[in-house]
């Protein structure tokens, strides 16, 4: 991720320099690449977004075996239980994240997350 940020920063700096010199700058990171490469980047962005969901949820403590002790998920569950008088409300953020952490994303959710990832990557390239 740091490489992408560094590349993006370098592209921004060179674009500003070129614009200040009276040239034309492109706003895209992949401006010189063919549209097939851009389309591939958009597809990859959607796939990475869908693939990242279980990894990120597992990292914060929402796992298939339940909520990991002393994790961010445990703190969220505690706060939710205190706010709701001792139990986590069905349909709450914590309940939904635990469900996704345990069972994975539904097909509809995969389509939504994949579309969002593709849109974000399309915006970046």
TrEMBL record:
The membrane-topology field of this record reads: Multi-pass membrane protein
Q: Which domain of life is it from?
A: Eukaryota
Q: What main location does UniProt list?
A: membrane
Biological processes per GO annotation: intrinsic apoptotic signaling pathway; release of cytochrome c from mitochondria
Q: Which InterPro entries match?
A: IFI6/IFI27-like, IFI6/IFI27-like_sf
Where does the record say this protein resides?
A: Membrane
What keywords would UniProt list here?
Membrane, Transmembrane, Transmembrane helix
Q: Which residues cross the membrane?
A: 12-33, 39-67
> Entry's Pfam families?
Ifi-6-16
One GO cellular component this record assigns the protein to is: mitochondrial membrane
- What's the family? Belongs to the IFI6/IFI27 family.
Name assigned to this protein: Interferon alpha-inducible protein 27-like protein 2 isoform X3
Q: Which organism is it from?
A: Pteropus vampyrus
Q: What is the lineage of its organism?
A: Eukaryota, Metazoa, Chordata, Craniata, Vertebrata
